[in-house]
Design goal:
297 residues; Multidrug-efflux Transporter Regulator, Chain: A, Domain 2; Rossmann fold; MerR_fam; transcription regulation; transcription
Length: 297
């Protein structure tokens, strides 16, 4: 069983730890569990409950009111809040949608995922749904996975749902002209999570760029052969696996040296990517907005 500290609850719910403690004391909202050594912790059900409380508060409910609800009343209010008559609310409070996606992931609930996605698409384009909701959600998953708050199975479940949607959306885009700028997108050896690079592929193709997507785990010699054949203008890669900083730096240098005439974009592990040195033909893309800004310059 995963154990959450009060700081974890603060991080995932957006509610300050001090506020959570006050709610515990004043309203008996949560009753922390304790380890054999008397350390306070919370379980997954309590995290889900607090995320739902956060959702109600975002919709104007008072904590004094929420604390008096029976379980049935609480669930009924939740249904009212996330019902179709409230879809426009998601446009104003993106965090609500992200919290709902967290719950869908934790509960392995595809229906909840589809409802959040469908709600967003009624009031946003697919691209805005990706950049405003899915991308921040993916960043939150990364934080949860690294600290053990989400299992590999839960992560894979939600990744595959999002991945399917992006692939379908890419297939629905018009073929760019032959003279459009050409991007070669790939993941290096031992990189297998292609979700973010697929997201970038959609952004590029949606702006009329040619995209050659190689997928995951591409050996360097194969990358060189493909580059010779396809002659892309830009190489775009993603490095996130738990490689050492020195290994990632060496890979950046190797890309720069082997493809001196190419522009290279790279994104990846936020913990040390900004600390690396980048040759003139290599540029770091730290956030999705960085890529959008590059494309609009």
């Amino acid at each position: 069983m995963v154990k959450y500290s009060i700081k974890d609850l603060e991080k995932y719910s957006g509610i300050k730890a001090h506020t959570i403690r006050i709610w515990e004391q004043r309203y008996n909202l949560l009753v922390p569990k304790r380890t054999a050594t008397n350390i306070r912790y919370y379980d997954a059900d309590q995290l889900r409950f607090l995320l739902n409380v956060s959702l109600l508060i975002e919709n104007g409910y008072k904590i004094s009111q929420i604390s008096k609800y029976s379980e049935d009343q609480f669930n009924q209010e939740l249904k009212t809040v996330i019902g179709e008559e409230k879809l426009e609310f998601l446009d104003q409070h993106v965090n609500v949608a992200i919290n709902e996606l967290v719950l869908a992931m934790l509960d392995l609930d595809e229906r909840r995922f589809e409802k959040v996605l469908g709600s967003s698409l009624l009031i946003r384009t697919f691209e805005k749904t990706l950049t405003d909701i899915m991308y921040p959600f993916l960043k939150r998953i990364g934080a949860m996975w690294r600290t053990g708050e989400v299992s590999t199975a839960q992560e894979h479940f939600i990744y595959q749902l999002i991945r399917q949607k992006i692939i379908v959306a890419i297939d629905g885009l018009m073929m760019p002209p032959n003279n459009a700028e050409k991007y070669l997108l790939f993941l290096p050896m031992s990189e297998f999570n292609d979700l973010l690079i697929l997201l970038f592929t959609y952004l590029l193709k949606n702006r009329g760029k040619q995209c050659i997507y190689l997928g995951a785990d591409i050996p360097f010699k194969d990358l060189q052969k493909v580059t010779e054949i396809t002659k892309p203008d830009v190489l775009f890669t993603f490095v996130k696996a738990p490689a050492a900083k020195i290994d990632t730096q060496a890979y950046v240098y190797e890309l720069s040296e082997k493809f001196t005439e190419k522009r290279i974009l790279i994104t990846g592990n936020p913990y040390f990517m900004e600390e690396l040195e980048y040759p003139k033909n290599v540029q770091l893309v730290s956030e999705v907005d960085d890529l959008i800004d590059l494309l609009e310059d």
